[in-house]
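dude i think i finally got it to work??
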Amino acid sequence: MPEVIPGPDAVNDKMVPVRFQYPNSVKSTNNANYQQAVTRMGGDDLNTRLWWDVASNN
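look at this
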């Protein structure tokens, strides 16, 4: 796997995002399941590692 390095103008605390956030349409049309998924995975954030991601993000 190649190493991915954030560019000089990177936002997100100079970290490479590890996942996409859920779209607003999911939050508004399926909020109960969205909340359950967010609770299980530890947050809906660009830096929340997925269950299979065992590498460090920095």
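The helical segments are 24-29, 31-41.
im so relieved honestly
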